[in-house]
Write a structure and sequence with these properties.
single chain, TIM Barrel, globular, 8-stranded parallel beta barrel
Amino acid sequence: MTAPTTALSVNLNKVALVRNTRHLGIPSVTRAAALCLQAGAHGITVHPRPDARHIRADDVYALNTQLRKSWPAAEFNIEGNPFHNLMDFVRQLRPHQCTFVPDSEGQFTSDHGWDLVRDADRVRPLIAEAKALGVRVSLFMDANASAMPLAKAVGADRVELYTEPYAAAWGKPAQAAVLRQFTEAAEAARAAGLGVNAGHDLNLDNLADFVRAAPAVQEVSIGHAFVSDALERGYGDAVRAYLAALA
């Protein structure tokens, strides 16, 4: 198999969600991380929300220690709203990457990117602070090519394209048109000097078409679909299947 040029970061939120339904500590988030990294995943993503509905603060600290000790080449990506709890983790842990997501505190799941016409002045100093700590900053963005220069102007290193609209259109008549929007957004981001990540509802069915159309994408973070597949395949086989799709 040809090695993928797009990195796979596994989001472990749903492992923690299952764990939190009992008080037994299983399934283990750190064990899941180890099995995914052993199988070839390039990194681990977590999105600790203020209500601790899945990933909790102690999970973030434990994963940070684990990766630094046993997997120093693996990327640790912490997502969240910088106006809620994200910056506390950035200041304390200095992960490889933080992804700024404009979620409300009780939001069910991420469903939109930043409006930088409105929010640029608010996010700019926090981006600068994270970068001064040596942390790469990615902004969760809709697939809008015209917004990519704005992301560069506020100081971001990368954008993460919000891919749910593509996933919803996959296999339907609108797929080609929607995918073209993502291709154009990725190209605009690269032209602006930004790196490009992507994530949300990518899965084994739609992933290959996406990375073929947007080869500029450097990293995908996949959680819900990955954990669903891992329930059937096991962590290792699920990682290998996603790497094959990326390749």
